[in-house]
Inverse folding.
């Protein structure tokens, strides 16, 4: 029940409406910006009501803009009724109707660097933000918005929105207040520096500035975010994590990393989780994260005292970790800073702090290009997300993945990626359970040998070496055979295995 | 003749040696860092002497590190005698022996983002800088180095070099003094902001800090930089420039660009030159450049009063423009700032200032990927240079090129690039003499239609549309046919034409 701890001005109570009334504000062709990032901090009630209205005959196809993929109340409910015309800037394969719509070409999806999208909305490149739907913990007496666990692009959407719907979610603990640090850079030519010098620095306000008059309506919500528990790391992930920790220790020993470890960024998913848990067992102390999304392992490492500061644009505790949070909210509140997406992923800050970036590709090739997004070059799996922001700008950048997929039938190392998300200029180190290929300063042929011999699975090394030998028949800086570079992927497509 | 206007401390005269004596400091296996950027401000005498010594029997293969490609006294002389083992971070096809060595795999070349290389040398990723050879205008009483017209990575090389050779070139006008702004960012975790807020801001010193004791020897030089006059713009370049100016005016009208034009970056070569000359005829006034290399057209626009401030890491006036400079050096000195390469190309500054970036690709594809470097995916033409730095971080980014090459036998638009230097996430606008494709916010199939219909040459549109139609038979987010995506390039390879 909404009370004055959640709505801190009596005028706000007059704005409470039903989800159906809120959904009625959304009409055909609109650009709709939603708060949240991954299944965290996104609105739920209004979009469920909109999907219901469409099922009952309302004609409405809209463009959904967000921080990243959000939860099924948007991705699934709206996609299933054909309500989504366009989608930016990220999508994840876990939402089946969205996946189907995008890959059948029915939903116009534009995959973007997450640090770019918010600023380009701010520049007006994509047109108006007709409606913003923002999930909130509470609204202040001045009408400013205290967000939930996911910030994403909410501040930019609120800045520009013609209409604002706020879902105040009573299931979010009120003690999240103070975790957010909301800062919107000025538009050039008036932009100045982003004054973050350490991962934990605060530079903005604990709320999104809005004002009571700009709020069109308020919807009460109590639906929990749909975060699932991560699976426990498997043998390959544990070995990858060991290889990674060993590599970082070696870099420190060689004087190429400072004694106090630089801030870490870690991607999403089970490999990333295993890597962080691997760091928990390392000799590194007082770690800092300057990352995008903070998953369960970050909370566990804060509790263990391994992580001192963690900056992200959202956190996604699974139900069990929410319980852990509730036992000692002050510990997490003083350790965690939640920022807008274009600040968490800002090239300026990532390069200044010297972030060590760790992400997982779908496949990478012998010359060091990485594919993070497209299966067989054409089917969108997951968007590029923030990986480009961190891998281009990090101090030291590491792509890690098991050397094979689908029970050993797919090699993660191929002669040429079918889609280049990270070019040969943007990658430094590849790690699989087989080993480490550090390609910094290596010319293409040396890179190829390092990647094949250190990272590829032994089952696939002969055909990769054979391709390289064949391509090298023509002398070239980067020996490529355009007639055979996709043979492994074509073989998989025809036979179901690259072997 | 070196006098006390060039060597401002008597001790410096004791360090004068012959080029042969200087070259003797360079031994097999060394990493040698040289000043300069394109044929501007690079050392000449020592490397000529080294090449001669090698011809006479000295055994010496070295790694050459620079800002970009430099002049023939290094690229040609040393490559021709097999003296170059490795080369970073840039190379240009104009130097034949270097091109041959790289593309026969005899010279280990590593192509890099120019904003990355200097900082990675600073981080120690590539090992020691054994020798730095720096071309200078003069040396101060304290032993600090006043550089010539090309800065490149000279400051980082001097910072780390175990031995320092300075070539003081008496052909460089002394009145270049004061143009340089030398600033080296601290290494993380101690790095702060790069405090540049306008293209013309000065944040460093007018010289490279060195000290008399660290200078091993001084060589007198009077060899001029090898800058050629640019050819006059042809009809296609003039039409491209018109399309570009019209596009920028439209963006301003739509409110997506501020009234005062944002700082411009322009790549190297005849298209870039034509574009700048096109801007000279536009209604834009008080232009600023935040660019890499400043070519003839910048000087002409400064003289016309069209450009108020120009920042770069080098300038390359042709002989006739040097004469223009000498008529009014104060005008150019107050308008031009010369910075280290990792500052001229710094993502932080490019994004903050909101640079409008304009570069020329070799080919680009229907989904918006661009190839700046490799012919047929394997032969290195020119390095990526700074194009990745500017195109990833610019406010608005434009790739422009004629729609065909080699008398119409090659289409600049292809189904898939053979080498992706700029991914689909990094490109916004393509311009040819045919028209403009603005792909911001467009999903892949819409992008393909815009690029084919607006940018491709009519001779090639049918086969590009046919490929798209064929690929679309399989529903997909990004319809690609791996068996046919390189057909146009393969046809050229086999028949000498894509038609």
């Amino acid at each position: 029940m909404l009370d004055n701890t959640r709505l801190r001005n009596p005028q706000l109570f007059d704005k409470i409406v039903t989800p159906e009334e809120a959904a009625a504000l959304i009409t055909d062709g609109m650009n709709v910006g939603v708060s949240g990032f991954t299944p965290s901090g996104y609105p739920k009630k209004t979009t469920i009501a909109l999907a219901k209205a469409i099922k009952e005959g309302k004609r409405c196809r809209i463009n959904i803009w967000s921080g990243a993929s959000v939860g099924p109340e948007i991705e699934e409910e709206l996609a299933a009724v054909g309500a989504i015309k366009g989608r930016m800037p990220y999508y994840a394969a876990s939402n089946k109707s969205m996946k189907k719509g995008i890959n059948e070409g029915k939903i116009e999806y534009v995959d973007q660097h997450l640090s770019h999208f918010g600023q380009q909305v701010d520049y007006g490149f994509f047109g108006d933000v007709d409606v913003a739907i923002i999930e909130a913990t509470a609204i202040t007496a001045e009408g400013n918005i205290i967000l939930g666990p996911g910030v994403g692009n909410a501040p930019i959407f609120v800045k520009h929105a013609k209409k604002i719907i706020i879902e105040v979610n009573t299931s979010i603990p009120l003690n999240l207040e103070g975790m957010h640090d909301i800062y919107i850079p000025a538009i050039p030519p008036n932009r100045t520096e982003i004054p973050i010098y350490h991962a934990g620095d605060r530079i903005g306000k604990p709320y999104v500035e809005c004002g009571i008059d700009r709020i069109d309506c308020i919807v009460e919500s109590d639906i929990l975010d749909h975060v699932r528990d991560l699976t426990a790391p498997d043998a390959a992930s544990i070995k990858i994590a060991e290889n990674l920790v060993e590599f970082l220790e070696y870099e420190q020993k060689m004087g190429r990393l400072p004694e106090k470890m630089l801030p870490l960024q870690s991607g999403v998913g089970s490999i990333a989780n295993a890597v962080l848990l691997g760091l928990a067992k390392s000799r590194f102390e007082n770690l800092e994260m300057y990352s995008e999304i903070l998953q369960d392992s970050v909370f566990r490492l804060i509790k263990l005292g391994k992580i001192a500061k963690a900056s992200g644009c959202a956190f996604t505790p699974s139900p069990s970790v929410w319980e852990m949070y509730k036992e000692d909210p002050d510990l997490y509140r003083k350790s965690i800073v939640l920022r807008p997406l274009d600040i968490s992923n800002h090239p300026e800050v990532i390069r200044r702090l010297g972030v060590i970036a760790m992400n997982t590709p779908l496949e990478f090739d012998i010359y060091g290009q990485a594919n993070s997004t497209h299966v067989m070059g054409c089917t969108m799996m997951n968007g590029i997300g923030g990986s480009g922001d961190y891998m281009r700008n990090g101090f030291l950048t590491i792509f890690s993945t098991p050397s094979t997929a689908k029970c050993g039938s797919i090699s993660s190392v191929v002669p040429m990626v079918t889609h280049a998300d990270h070019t040969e200029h943007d990658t430094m180190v590849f790690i699989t359970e087989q080993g480490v290929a550090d390609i910094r300063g290596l010319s293409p042929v040396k890179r190829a040998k390092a990647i094949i011999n250190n990272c590829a699975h032994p089952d696939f090394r002969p055909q990769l070496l054979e391709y390289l030998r064949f391509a090298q028949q023509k002398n070239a800086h980067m020996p490529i055979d355009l007639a055979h570079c996709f043979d492994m992927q074509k073989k998989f497509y025809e036979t179901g295995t690259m072997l």
Q: What stands out?
A: The domain at 10-221 of chain B is CATH 3.40.1080.10 (Glutaconate Coenzyme A-transferase). Chain B touches chain A through 81 residues (CB under 8 Å).
